[in-house]
Design goal:
Elements (H helix, E strand, L loop, with lengths): L1 E9 L3 H19 L2 E6 L4 H7 L5 H9 L2 E6 L15 H10 L4 E7 L12 H4 L4 E7 L9 E6 L2 E6 L5 H17 L3 E6 L5 H14 L6 E6 H10 L6 E4 L1 H11 L12 E3 L5 E3 L18 H13 L4 H16 L2 E2 L9 E2 L2 H11 L1
Parallel strand pairs: 1-2, 1-3, 3-12, 5-10, 8-9, 8-10, 13-14
Antiparallel strand pairs: 4-5, 4-11, 6-7, 11-12
This protein binds 1,4-dihydronicotinamide adenine dinucleotide, 2-OXO-4-methylpentanoic acid (COI) and magnesium ion.
Length: 356
């Protein structure tokens, strides 16, 4: 199989972790007889430095011409003072929107050997943890009308959260279909006690659940969900929620895996072209030290193999290699525990690639 992959290395630790995922993809290509070729795409702070814009039109075109996109992370303190539309993070929102990637899947799975790294109580962790957050990705407050205006002699800034029925329905379907392949349980998370957009969210979800009588369904308010994720994460199978709630809850859920460096993601729309990225950011505090955890990016590449290229065996091989490395006691600094062997970012990538 020949595939063209757009690589957005981005900023901060982005280039370090993407390099490790590429090592793993190259090993997959070698072992299974595929050809993966890469197109370098500029987006984020590095694109601002090179072109003055976080997402040049040429970058969008390159992504559209590729079979899929692998992204590290964008942003960092160097660009923090820039105005809203010129910020590196806008590149991320821009690509997601330009490619129509409404469905962001963020699996939070505790690998058994990392149970010790999980900050939750052992009795909560016992038996394993495995949930998926299905996050709506191109609507809600990150894409709503916004402005900063002068009001009563002072600055007033606003952002608006809004959803159309069809936007809620299509992400709801993704969640119900996913639940059918898992433990058949959907928790829809909203703030329907306050927000109109959440009340519509709930109305559409309730309509949809009639089509999935085999799936257990419940509503949960987002503040309660934040608490329940720590108190009893084992109660969740598939969580479906709007853009910002999903963003926040998935960072929280990463703690059940031991580290934010462990959660991958896929972002898909109607077709097979997707964008794959770790859920974390550019981690400016550890950039250039070769200590970042590349596993989330490597597992994102595994999701690309499964969902965009329909290569389940190859994807399984990558996930098994990650499991094996962890079982053998190799760790990056963020998941290090006593008796284990500390690896750098690049050593971890090489070790996983060697086991594919
Ligand atoms: N998808 C993206 O490109 C995202 C970009 N950002 C941007 O990244 C920059 C930094 O944001 P923060 O709030 O600091 O969030 P962050 O996720 O970059 O870092 C939070 C903490 O987690 C650690 N961490 C993150 N990834 C890690 C990894 N792979 N291995 C080990 N430790 C890791 C960092 O060292 C830091 O202590 C900001 O400019 C932000 O806007 C934030 C989130 C997502
Ligand atoms: C620009 C932000 C929405 C990125 C982020 O935090 C995320 O997608 O998780
Ligand atoms: Mg986030």
């Amino acid at each position: 199989m020949n595939k063209q992959i757009a690589l957005i290395r981005g900023d901060g630790i982005g280039p370090e972790i993407v390099a490790e995922a590429v090592k793993v993809l190259d090993r997959v290509a070698e072992r299974f007889g595929h050809t993966f070729s890469y197109t370098e795409v500029l987006a984020g702070g590095c694109a601002i430095d090179a072109t003055g814009h976080p997402l040049p039109q040429d970058s969008i075109e390159k992504c559209k011409m590729s079979d899929s996109v692998l992204l590290g992370a964008v942003g960092g303190p160097k660009w923090d003072q820039l105005d809203g539309s010129l910020r590196p993070e806008k590149a991320l929102l821009g690509i997601r929107s330009a490619l129509g990637l409404f469905s962001n899947i963020r699996p939070a799975r505790l690998f058994a050997p990392l149970a010790h790294a999980c900050p939750l109580r052992p009795d909560i962790v016992a038996g394993g943890l495995d949930l998926v957050i299905v996050r709506e990705l191109i609507g809600g407050v990150y894409f709503g009308e916004r402005d900063t205006v002068l009001k009563n002699g002072e600055k007033y800034a606003y952002d608006t959260m809004g959803y159309a029925e069809h936007e809620i329905e299509r992400i709801g379907r993704v969640a119900f279909e996913m639940a059918r392949k898992r433990r058949k349980k959907v928790t829809s998370v909203d703030k329907a006690n306050v927000l109109d957009s959440s009340r519509l969210w709930r109305e559409v979800m309730h309509r949809l659940r009639e089509e999935y009588p085999d799936v257990e369904y419940s509503d949960m308010l987002v503040d309660n969900t934040a608490m329940q994720l720590v108190r009893n994460p084992g109660q969740f199978d598939v969580i479906v929620t709007e853009n910002m709630f999903g963003d926040i809850l998935s960072d929280e859920a990463s703690m059940i895996t031991g580290s934010i460096g462990m959660i991958p993601s896929s972002s898909l729309g109607e077709g097979t072209r997707g964008m794959y990225e770790p859920i974390h950011g550019s981690a400016p505090d550890i950039v250039g030290k070769d200590i970042a955890n590349p596993v989330a990016t490597i597992l994102s590449a595994a999701m690309m193999l499964r969902y965009s290229f329909n290569l389940p065996e190859e994807s399984d091989a990558v996930e098994s290699a990650v499991s094996q490395v962890l079982e053998e006691g190799y760790r990056t600094a963020d998941i290090m525990s006593e008796g284990c062997t500390l690896l750098s970012c690049s050593e971890m990538g090489e070790r996983i690639a060697a086991l594919v």
